[in-house]
Design a protein that fits this description.
187 residues; Serine Threonine Protein Phosphatase 5, Tetratricopeptide repeat; 0% strand; elongated; mainly alpha; 71% helix
Length: 187
């Protein structure tokens, strides 16, 4: 058996990434993934499975696997793939965000918060981690922690202020004066 050429391995990774991107476009919150989206995501997983072990076990391939499994709602399996990525490349934000997302949907909010905290240890000034941590604290009812993380995210990148208006995770604290103060700009 001959080794798979590098250009073929890279082509498979690009193709799988494309299928995942297309499949994720069909993911709608609180509605089942349509069969067309499922086929795209399964095709990506099938492609990743033909990669030789050294490539299939690399962070980029495991990240793609985790994303496909997450989009399919196979959250426990997705967690394992994302954890492998985080263990190998702790600065990969996608792994921490993916694990938090899956844990939240599994009803394990305290673990989701713990995952994002670990991600912040690796990348302490990443506003997307801070923003998502604020969301999870809001859902948990920890208003002060939510406000602190949201304030930090906005101080790093003011665009996160604009996202709060449409984010349902902030509904539990939306009327709190501290949340209003952080999310509204007075000129």
């Amino acid at each position: 058996m001959t080794a798979m050429p590098r250009h073929r391995r890279q082509a498979i990774l690009r193709e799988a990434s494309g299928y995942i991107e297309l499949g994720e476009l069909l993911v709608q919150q609180d509605t089942p993934l349509p069969p067309s989206g499922q086929r795209l995501l399964h095709r990506a997983l099938d492609l990743l499975a033909v990669l030789p072990d050294p490539t299939r076990l690399k962070a980029i391939a495991k990240l793609l696997e985790g994303e496909a499994l997450r989009a399919l709602g196979r959250w426990e399996e997705s967690l394992a793939a994302f954890q492998m990525v985080a263990d190998r490349e702790p600065k990969r934000l996608e792994a921490w965000l993916g694990m938090g997302w899956c844990l939240k949907r599994l009803g394990r909010l305290d673990e989701a918060i713990g995952m994002l905290r670990q991600g912040l240890e690796a990348s302490p000034r990443e506003p997307i981690l801070l923003y998502n941590l604020a969301c999870y604290h809001s859902l948990e009812g920890s208003v002060q922690a939510a406000i602190e993380h949201l304030t930090k995210a906005i101080s790093i990148d003011d665009r996160y202020r604009d996202l709060t208006g449409a984010e349902p995770d902030f509904d539990p604290i939306r009327q709190d004066p501290r949340f209003v103060a952080v999310t509204h700009v007075t000129v």
